[in-house]
Amino acid sequence: MGERVFIAIGSNLGDREANCRSAIEHLKGDPRVRVIKESAFYETEPWGKTEQPAFINAAVEIETDLAPKELLALLKNIEDRVGRKARERWGPREIDLDIIFYGDRVIKEEGLTIPHPEAHNRRFVIEPIAEMAPEFIHPVLEEKLYDILIRLHNRPVRNERKE
């Protein structure tokens, strides 16, 4: 199979953990995707718009031959199947699936930026991925995820906790 890809998963509406597990099962059920690793689940306070329920966050490492835009379309389809409804940006959601890293590619096109432009500032994104692949090198920052995570741990914690 093809590229090594990391996908962030989050939910803060409904049965948050079940929503995340359902998304992972949908990924496992697609013959074009091979789930290699799954992170632990983390409960985190919302980022951005903080007046909403806490999130369950996780990540998966997959291999796929899908092109980035094709993978994005698959993730949007899975979000629909899990029950995501259109709401305000950064607001509550049943499920959120984001491509964080797609191998060592750097992609900037309409509707798709990889690596995710804010990933390195968000502990709830980096921690689950670093749990699975601490030596992975961020293709823009050229730093190991472990080192990015250490920097995030050393920042004052605003509104985030690991459970």
Write a concise keyword list for the protein shown above.
163 residues; Alpha-Beta Plaits; five-stranded antiparallel β-sheet; disordered C terminus
Layout of secondary structure:
Elements: E1 3-11, H1 16-28, E2 33-38, E3 42-44, E4 55-64, H2 68-82, E5 96-102, E6 107-109, E7 112-114, H3 123-132, H4 145-154
Antiparallel strand pairs: 1-4, 1-5, 2-4, 3-4, 6-7
Number of helices: 4
**At CATH's second level, what is the architecture?**
2-Layer Sandwich
- Reported by name, the CATH topology is Alpha-Beta Plaits
What is the string of SSEs from the N terminus onward? EHEEEHEEEHH
Helix content: 25-40%
Number of strands: 7
**Biggest β-sheet: count, sense, barrel?**
5 strands, antiparallel
Structural class: alpha+beta
User: What oligomeric state is this?
Assistant: single chain
Residue stretches low in confidence (pLDDT < 50, at least 5 long) are 157-163
Task: Explain how this protein is built.
The protein is built from 4 helices and 7 strands, in the order βαβββαβββαα. The strands form 2 sheets. Strands 1, 2, 3, 4 and 5 form a 5-stranded antiparallel β-sheet that branches. It has a two-stranded antiparallel ribbon with strand order 6-7. By secondary structure, it is α+β, with helices and mostly antiparallel strands. The protein has a single domain (3-117), classed as 7,8-Dihydro-6-hydroxymethylpterin-pyrophosphokinase HPPK (Alpha-Beta Plaits). β6 (107-109) and β7 form a beta hairpin. The longest helix has 15 residues, at 68-82. α1 crosses α2 (68-82).
